[in-house]
Amino acid sequence: MSTTWHVLGAGSLGTLWATRLARAGLPVRLILRDPARLRAYQAAGGLTLVEQGQSSLLEIPGETSTSSTPIQRLLLACKAYDAEAAVASIAPRLAPGAELILLQNGLGSQDAVAARVPQARCIAASSTEGAFRDGDWRVVFAGHGYTWLGDSGHPTPPIWLDELAASGIPHEWSTQILTRLWRKLALNCAINPLTVLHDCRNGGLQQHQCEVATLCAELSELLQCCGQPAAAQNLQQEVERVILATAANYSSMHQDVSNGRRTEISYLLGYACEAAARHRLQLPHLQQLQQRLVNQLQQRGLPSA
Ligand code: NAD
Ligand code: KPL
């Protein structure tokens, strides 16, 4: 009998993973915020995955964090700012040797979660897949991509990677997951805040090449200083490549801001600026960028941390 995949968070990525695992015949249980959300979910009859215009409904059982069954394997699919509290809510249910897969973008939440549950193995993930919700309990698979998984403390891959393969979840085990997370953080810091400040699609940053280049130089300096030279390699070229490849898209941060949602700023630019301060590194443009973004968020009445 396969180990149950508990999935905490029925948002975009949580639904994308839960539905593909369930479609492959694997046991999945969805952990919802509270009894009211659980009742609403049960009334909907399951999660719907929309892929290439085709909808499929997966009747995945739901529960709340207070359910009594032990958790052996947990996919944590909430936003970075919710991760620590979410894990605290299920911590008493973790079985000995439990494994957590952390899908959060940026850096900082992974350490906070690991400190909350020192008895569990925490595996970090960095994903380029894209999904969005087009209704409650429905997700549209918008961008095919890849997920890198890794555990900086233990290089041994977990036994369940073949279940991801069987579920059609493109992935790779990475012994350098921190480098991947830093690289993605640097990309997001170079692109996302500027798209908010200039109120443009990613492609609009082609009009701000100097600003992007200056940020990439400071981010590269930071990565070197933080012991991540591989993440700094050709950063500017990759940022320019991503700007071109995603020219028609709005960045995730732009989408959050324009929809009045909280951003993950503290785990991206905030984390970068704190790391620079710890290393007594002067990165004036990055710091100015953070201040401008904080001002913009405050003007819109959104949390700036
Ligand atoms: P989302 O907001 O769509 O979903 C998060 C879900 O978690 C929400 O439904 C929320 O209610 C739920 N949640 C929060 N706290 C909870 C708790 N204590 N108990 C139960 N449920 C709880 O977020 P998302 O877009 O799926 O993003 C998740 C993470 O993945 C983020 O860090 C994001 O940056 C990253 N990511 C997302 C995408 C994407 O395409 N959506 C791509 C790559 C990375
Ligand atoms: O990951 C992204 C995002 O929008 O969050 C990209 C497309 C790389 C832009 O930074």
UniProtKB/TrEMBL annotation:
<feature type="domain" description="Ketopantoate reductase N-terminal">
    <location>
        <begin position="5"/>
        <end position="151"/>
    </location>
</feature>
<feature type="domain" description="Ketopantoate reductase C-terminal">
    <location>
        <begin position="177"/>
        <end position="291"/>
    </location>
</feature>
<dbReference type="InterPro" id="IPR008927">
    <property type="entry name" value="6-PGluconate_DH-like_C_sf"/>
</dbReference>
<protein>
    <recommendedName>
        <fullName>2-dehydropantoate 2-reductase</fullName>
        <ecNumber>1.1.1.169</ecNumber>
    </recommendedName>
</protein>
<keyword id="KW-0521">NADP</keyword>
<dbReference type="GO" id="GO:0008677">
    <property type="term" value="F:2-dehydropantoate 2-reductase activity"/>
</dbReference>
<dbReference type="InterPro" id="IPR013332">
    <property type="entry name" value="KPR_N"/>
</dbReference>
<dbReference type="GO" id="GO:0005737">
    <property type="term" value="C:cytoplasm"/>
</dbReference>
<comment type="similarity">
    <text>Belongs to the ketopantoate reductase family.</text>
</comment>
<dbReference type="InterPro" id="IPR013328">
    <property type="entry name" value="6PGD_dom2"/>
</dbReference>
<dbReference type="InterPro" id="IPR003710">
    <property type="entry name" value="ApbA"/>
</dbReference>
<keyword id="KW-0566">Pantothenate biosynthesis</keyword>
<comment type="pathway">
    <text>Cofactor biosynthesis; (R)-pantothenate biosynthesis; (R)-pantoate from 3-methyl-2-oxobutanoate: step 2/2.</text>
</comment>
<dbReference type="Pfam" id="PF02558">
    <property type="entry name" value="ApbA"/>
</dbReference>
<dbReference type="InterPro" id="IPR036291">
    <property type="entry name" value="NAD(P)-bd_dom_sf"/>
</dbReference>
<dbReference type="InterPro" id="IPR013752">
    <property type="entry name" value="KPA_reductase"/>
</dbReference>
<dbReference type="InterPro" id="IPR050838">
    <property type="entry name" value="Ketopantoate_reductase"/>
</dbReference>
<dbReference type="GO" id="GO:0015940">
    <property type="term" value="P:pantothenate biosynthetic process"/>
</dbReference>
<keyword id="KW-0560">Oxidoreductase</keyword>
<comment type="function">
    <text>Catalyzes the NADPH-dependent reduction of ketopantoate into pantoic acid.</text>
</comment>
<dbReference type="GO" id="GO:0050661">
    <property type="term" value="F:NADP binding"/>
</dbReference>
<dbReference type="Pfam" id="PF08546">
    <property type="entry name" value="ApbA_C"/>
</dbReference>
